[in-house]
Specification:
DNA polymerase, domain 1, mainly alpha, 2 domains, elongated, hpI Integrase, Chain A, 56% helix
Length: 297
């Protein structure tokens, strides 16, 4: 491949594409590595490169441990180069045409076992305001799978303690109705009846979970609380408030819950987001059931 062609291409990338220096360096580095691969396979003419060769190169990158995101960027770099050659009439066909970028791997969420959930939730003791509030929050988070932003935004009237339901948003439109289990309801009752009123300064405050000042607990405050108890329970996993949401979903599915019901409770607009929980577990039976039942599995 003539050096003048590559030099002209680099100049074109610098002057006409408006790329940042880091992106430009990555594109050039990707192209140089591709050229080295071609030369090592005695392919010295761009006209000899076809789809099969490019696919072989992408597989070569994969075998050498390159991340999916890196392979995708390499294909983008190669495609940009061949489109340049095509526009300059230096080739008659673009070998990257219709080649699909590899799908980025979706990182599976961290999920606790049921035993680990028990250990984490048992850390706060409901013998004072902080212990009762924290136990109620953690129990409610695991019982409903709601988001951190939703739990700190809860008001007293979001909960029906008699019927055992949590109401989020406008249930007549895009809101959610989520059942709350007896254990979580018990700890919420202890918190509300025995401790919540003791810190309230403004009787009109409707927030369910309060800080020591009697104001609504913040998202940052909740994160600190979870961090505090994860240190105490010594579970060798990276636990965040979202971990209990993930665990809620996986444990429901493991126990036979319909995925559409889990989707509705989590508030996912797209069921593909919920489906990732099917593979966030080592439960082979669950995966086999999914593969047999889903028409596109």
């Amino acid at each position: 491949m003539p050096n003048i062609t590559i030099k002209n291409y680099i100049e074109y990338m610098k002057n006409d594409k408006g790329l940042s220096s880091n992106t430009l360096e990555a594109y050039i580095r990707d192209l140089e590595q591709f050229m080295d691969y071609l030369n090592s396979n005695n392919l010295n003419n761009v006209k000899d490169v076809n789809k099969t060769i490019i696919i072989a190169y992408l597989m070569y990158l994969q075998k050498n441990g390159r991340a999916t995101s890196t392979i995708s960027r390499n294909l983008s770099s190669i495609r940009c180069y061949y489109q340049y050659l095509l526009n300059k009439n230096l080739i008659t066909e673009d070998p990257t045409l219709n080649l699909q970028l590899p799908k980025r791997e979706r990182k599976l969420p961290c999920v606790l076992t049921k035993e680990e959930v028990d250990i984490l939730l048992s850390q706060p003791e409901p013998i004072n305001f902080k212990g009762a509030r924290d136990r109620a929050m953690l129990e409610l988070l695991y019982a409903t799978g709601i988001r951190v932003s939703e739990i700190v935004a809860l008001n007293l009237d979001n909960l029906d303690l008699d019927l055992g339901y949590l109401y989020l948003g406008d249930v007549d439109f895009d809101g959610r109705v989520i059942p709350v289990g007896k254990i979580a309801l018990n700890y919420i009752n202890i918190y509300i009846e025995d401790y919540r009123e003791k810190v309230i300064k403004d009787k009109t405050e409707m927030a369910l979970f309060l800080n020591y000042s009697g104001n609504r607990l913040t998202r940052q405050g909740f994160w600190k609380i979870v961090k505090e108890y994860t240190k105490k329970c010594s579970i060798d996993k990276k636990i965040t408030p979202h971990t209990l949401r993930h665990s809620f979903a996986v444990h429901l599915l493991q126990n036979g819950a319909d995925i559409k019901v889990v989707q509705e409770m989590l508030g996912h607009s797209d069921i593909s987001t919920t489906q990732m929980y099917l593979f966030a577990t080592d439960d082979k039976k669950l995966k086999d059931v999914y593969k047999k039942a889903h028409p596109r599995a």
